């Protein structure tokens, strides 16, 4: 019996070396199937990763193109606003230069005064050769200022003779606002491309609330900050509104920060 088992084991070793052992062939076939399945899963994973990377790349390209177009439009609009401000500044400088040139055209005509010569007898000789008489001393000029009542009476008399209606002179009345008896003064200024309003600094691209009597309260974003005004873009319809620095100082417009 021992010899039979030993002979059987030797036979199995011989089949294993030859590659014909049934148990070896069955397990080898199972390993081959597992190897093929793993290769198939690796190909599927590779394809999924490739498609995901391609979708991500396409999405980033579209987003980059969209950002480029938006930045291009904003740059164009900002340059247009800057050039309009420069154009207005040049026009104002031109008007000032023309006014100064017109003022310089009206110069007083200088008259040449002849020097007086003395005769040997001590008399002064005039420009026509004869002795010049002594000039009379001019009496001092007296300026009489009339009050408003006397001026109004004189105007009534003049208008009565000329047949025109009389308009009396009135003292200038102080400016009174609709809400109270004094003008509203707000602390507003622009420094280094930043707006300072009511103890707060505002930058370009910041979300704000703007409020005025004409338009009411609305949400907006600061589009640009010039030297004497700011340009904001409404959140509702993307329309641009220009607010002068003087309007902020006089309280016609008020702004405050808005959380995005």
From TrEMBL:
The keyword Chloroplast does not apply. Keywords: Nucleus, Repressor, Transcription, Transcription regulation. Residues 115-139 are annotated as: Disordered. One of its GO terms (biological process) is regulation of gene expression. GO terms for cellular component: nucleoplasm. It is found in: Nucleus. Its main location: nucleus. This is SUDS3. The lineage of its organism: Eukaryota, Metazoa, Spiralia, Lophotrochozoa, Bryozoa.
